[in-house]
Write a structure and sequence with these properties.
Elements lengths: L1 H11 L15 H14 L6 H13 L5 H13 L6 H34 L3 H6 L1 H29 L3 H15 L5 H14 L1
């Protein structure tokens, strides 16, 4: 009966545009739930987080600009700890200190719960051939996500010749001379201030 009613409504009102209907304005609860979802789905390097931030906060929710996302990534790289600091910064950027707390709890809560629940199974999972194959597949997908975000970030960062020069000097120093990446981050900060 409900299906028939829905079809009749669609036939009567064919020009409905569901994209324009706002269910709930962006709030602390949506911030928490979004980072909770990211924390649940995130696997691999913290850099995979960047793909999720791009997808959720820039593309879908449209509460961050591409420039703000790049700034958040820079803060995550600059501060001690993993790239997950980016989540705290985004929360702070959107809702101040309450947002920073909510985003941080949201991103880390799934990991803590997963470890708590799966800890007794870890020894069996390590010996499983099927589980090992699943991890290889997940690693490949995570690498694709990181590559996609890298390309998108490059399109927004490489707008001036000196940014491209900083990139290649940093890449050469890291890959060939094995210089600690912290020096390039500090150098990028200083050059960014003066250029």
């Amino acid at each position: 009966m409900l299906i028939v009613a829905a079809i009749l409504l669609l036939l009567i009102k064919k020009d409905w545009n569901f994209k324009n209907y706002v269910i709930e304005p962006f709030s602390l609860s949506i911030l928490f739930l979004t980072f909770l979802k990211i924390g649940l789905l995130l696997y691999g390097s913290g850099y995979v987080l960047l793909a999720f931030i791009q997808s959720e906060f820039v593309d879908k929710l449209q509460v961050l600009t591409q420039v703000q996302m790049i700034d958040a990534i820079s803060v995550g790289e600059f501060t001690p700890g993993p790239v997950f600091t980016t989540a705290t910064f985004i929360g702070y950027l959107l809702f101040g200190i309450p947002g920073a707390l909510v985003a941080t709890v949201g991103i880390f809560l799934p990991s803590f719960l997963l470890v708590l629940i799966l800890a007794p199974l870890f020894s069996k999972l390590k010996q499983s051939n099927t589980f090992s194959k699943m991890l290889i597949g997940i690693n490949a997908a995570a690498l694709a996500l990181m590559a996609n975000v890298t390309i998108q970030l490059g399109q927004n960062i490489f707008v001036e010749w000196y940014f491209i020069l900083i990139f290649f000097i940093s890449l050469l120093g890291i890959l060939k001379y094995k210089i600690n990446s912290a020096f390039f981050i500090l150098g990028g900060i200083l050059l960014g201030l003066f250029l």
